[in-house]
Every structure is written in structure tokens, then in C-alpha cells.
Amino acid sequence: MLDRFAIEWLRGPLVSGARWLHAHGMRANQVTLWGFMIGMLAIPAIGLNWYSVGLLLILMNRVADGIDGALARIDGATDAGGFLDIVLDFIFYSGIIFAFALADPARNSLAATALIFSFVGTGSSFLAYAIMAERRKFVNIVYPHKGFYYLGGLAEGTETIFFFIAICLFPALFPLLAWFFAGICLLTTIVRVWGGYRAIAAAEEERR
């Protein structure tokens, strides 16, 4: 829901960073991999209750995720790079929730499980729509810069970052915040399934 505004606000700094890295020989896939490895370090940090360290690593991962896209547009985006970026993002997202389950299994495990369940809904609806939209050659008007067909919702990347910041700043509230965000993710899944199905069905009707 907030991604379109965040993208406009952050575009300038991300492009500047991408140009600097490109001038020094860095490529998009390298940034993707480095960002992923940094993000994975947040799992043991959070698991050990080092929440401030975990938050710093999460933010570094998200900066890398923004820069790799800008860098890919400079180098020339590739399907292989887009695939790598999407897969590693989903692993990172679920890994952070897993880390909170490790940090306090007795208090956090059930809420973490529910949240990962809801992430499967948002992720599968997102990817399934992208596949079908590519087949149907839909035009991506809202996110024309994306390397794939993007179906929005209440919980997108920006909201997820805010959620990660909140649970790192207030780890004692993780169960409450996780259940709340899981509800938002489930609503997003419903909206995406409904909207995606209608869009694809309408496209099929037009071709008959």
C-alpha cells in the first residue's frame, strides 16, 4: 500500500548509490548476494536477543535490496537476477520471523508460525499473479520499474519493513504485533486472490 510513495521518496538516493557502486565495478547480483548474507546474520543476532544489532542488519539488507534494483536498471535487468532477488527476499522475510521464535520459543512460536503461514498466502498470490500476468502481457501501470508484474495489497515491502523495525524496537510485543500483521497479510491475500482472479478471468473473456 505504501510502496508507491516509498519508491518515489527513495529513488534519488538509491540511484545515486547504484551509480557509485557501478562506477566501482559492483554488479546487481553481487549486491543481492551480499545483502542477503548480511540479512541472514540478523537471524542469530535476534535469536541471541541482540535486537539492535538485528535491526541494523535488517536495514542494511533492505538498503541493498533497493540498490540492487537500481543497479540492475543501469546494467540491464535480467530474468536470472530478478529470480535471485525474489527468492532471497522471501527467505529473508521468513528468516526474521524464525529468529524471533528462536529468541523466545515459549512466547513467540505460535505467533511466528501464524505469521509465516500468512506470508505463504501473500507470497503465493504475488508470484502466481506475476506468472499469469506475464502470460497475458498485462501492463504494469502502478509499478512500471518492476522487473515483474506486481499485484499490490495492504501489506507490501514498506509495511513489512515498518513491522520489522517495530518488533526489533519492542521485542516484548512480538506476539501481539505478529498476530496483527498476520491479519493484515491474510487480508492482503484475500484482496490479491479476488483482484487477480477477476483481472485474469476478464482477460480470458476478452480473448474469446
Features:
single chain; 208 residues; mainly alpha; Four Helix Bundle (Hemerythrin (Met), subunit A); 7 helices; 81% helix; flat; membrane
What does this entry look like structurally?
This protein has one domain (3-206): Up-down Bundle (Four Helix Bundle (Hemerythrin (Met), subunit A)), CATH 1.20.120. The protein is built from 7 helices and no strands. It has helices at 3-23, 28-47, 51-75, 79-103, 105-136, 157-169, 174-206. Mean pLDDT is 86; it is low at 141-150. With 208 residues, the protein is mainly α. The longest helix is centred in the last third of the chain and has 33 residues, at 174-206. Helices cover 81% and strands 0% of the residues. Belongs to the CDP-alcohol phosphatidyltransferase class-I family.
In short:
By secondary structure, this protein is mainly α.
CATH-derived architecture: Up-down Bundle
Oligomer: single chain
Largest sheet: none
Q: Strand-and-helix sequence, N→C?
A: HHHHHHH
Specify the CATH class: Mainly Alpha
- CATH fold type: Four Helix Bundle (Hemerythrin (Met), subunit A)
Q: Helical stretch count? A: 7
Q: Which percent range fits the helix content?
A: over 70%
List the domain count as a whole number: 1
